[in-house]
Amino acid sequence: MNADSATGFSSKPIDIASPVVEMARAKVNLALHVTGQRDDGYHTLDSLVVFPEYGDELRLTPADDMALHVSGPFASGLGSNTSANLAMKAAWLMAESVPGNRSARIELEKRLPIAAGIGGGSADAAATLRALGRLWDVHPSSHNLEKLALRLGADVPMCFTEKHSRVRGIGEQIETTPPFPKGAIVLVNPGVKLETPDVFKALAKKNNSPLPALPEKWTGIQNFANWLKGCRNDLQAPAQSMVPEIAEVISLLDTQWETLLARMSGSGPTCFALCATLSDAQAVAERIKEHRPGWWVQAACY
User: Fold this and answer.
1) pLDDT at 6
2) What is the C-alpha to C-alpha distance for residues 206 and 190, in angstroms, rounded to an integer?
3) Which residues are known catalytic residues?
4) Which UniProt keywords apply (predicted)?
């Protein structure tokens, strides 16, 4: 194994390898409090995030040149300029940061909606970093990897770890929490794109209270849901003013008896229902699909 002290990465010579498959899980903000805005324009947050067992899928193989090929139900929403894709930017950044001249063919199956408030692009970038680490057998130090991920976007470090956690700062402060009780999520998107900067711009009050004190433990999923009801998503109101369908999504989710909590995720417009079990979440998802066949609906454990 070779070490490069300048980059902080260690590696082995590249071999012809089997394809590396990596899931880029959706990021769901169970609560999102906006606590301020820095001089550089970035907003500070206090949020609880989970990563359901559903997302985009990446398949990487060694190649002579770096290339990205996108397929899947939401591929057309990304456009043809692959150099602007966060997964491609992550690949180039990783290649520049490790010893040797390396490339890969990246096949991205885009299963998550675009500009949806569930971290799709950030998740793809993070999954690309993880997959290239396996494909090239490079092992960045955690410090160097955090810096690398943050260069791609504020959400990328948390998407890299894919750990249920509390996130503060602009997204780079990832903190361990008491274990979240096991449960399931229904994700619902009304088929409308919503750009994050526009939602933050419409937020009237930037300095809001942080999350309430976390308990030493949650005793179960109902206790967890009750605690979350004392929290907010400060971006929900401005997002709803731009996409009125968000109110309909939340109202419809709230009427399902299996729903323990309904709220918008991130900057929207995707909303979620927290459920006790996967079977409960699947039942809700089936009813929503029947009622609104044009919406994107997905149930998953977290």
Assistant:
1) 44
2) 27
3) 27, 155
4) ATP-binding, Isoprene biosynthesis, Kinase, Nucleotide-binding, Transferase
* pLDDT tens track for 202-244: 999 999 999 999 999 999 999 999 999 999 999 999 999 999 9
* Model confidence at 1: pLDDT above 50: no
CA-to-CA distance for 49 and 167, rounded, in angstroms? 7
Given a cut of 80, whether residue 137 has pLDDT beyond it is yes
Please answer whether residues 49 and 28 qualify as being in contact, where contact means their C-beta atoms are separated by less than 8 angstroms. Answer: yes
Q: Answer whether 2-174 and 178-301 agree in fold.
A: no
Query: What pTM was estimated for this model as a whole?
Result: 0.91
The pLDDT of residue 51 is 98
Q: Environment class of residue 233 by beta-carbon count within 10 Å: exposed (0-12), middle (13-18) or buried (19+)?
A: buried
End-to-end CA distance of the chain: 36
Name the percent of the chain in helix, strand, coil, to the closest 5. Answer: 35, 25, 40
The fold adopted by the segment(s) 178-301 is: Alpha-Beta Plaits (3.30.70)
> Looking at the predicted structure, is the pLDDT value of residue 147 above 60?
yes
Sequence ranges of the domains in the chain: 2-174, 178-301
Give dist(CA 32, CA 48) in Å, integer: 7
Cα gap 141→87, rounded to integer Å: 21
For 36-75, give the DSSP string.
EE-TTSPEEEEEEEE--S-EEEEEEEE-SS-EEEEESTTG
3-state secondary structure of 292: coil
**Which two tokens mark 83?**
């150099």
Binding residues for ATP: 113-123
> What residues are paired with 29 via a beta bridge?
49
Does residue 55 contact residue 125 with C-beta atoms inside 8 Å?
no
**Helix extents (H) in the chain:** 86-97, 120-136, 142-152, 156-161, 196-202, 221-228, 236-242, 245-254, 278-291
Question: For 83, which DSSP code?
Answer: G
Instruction: Give yes or no for residue 5 having a pLDDT over 60.
Output: no
* CATH class of segment(s) 2-174: alpha beta
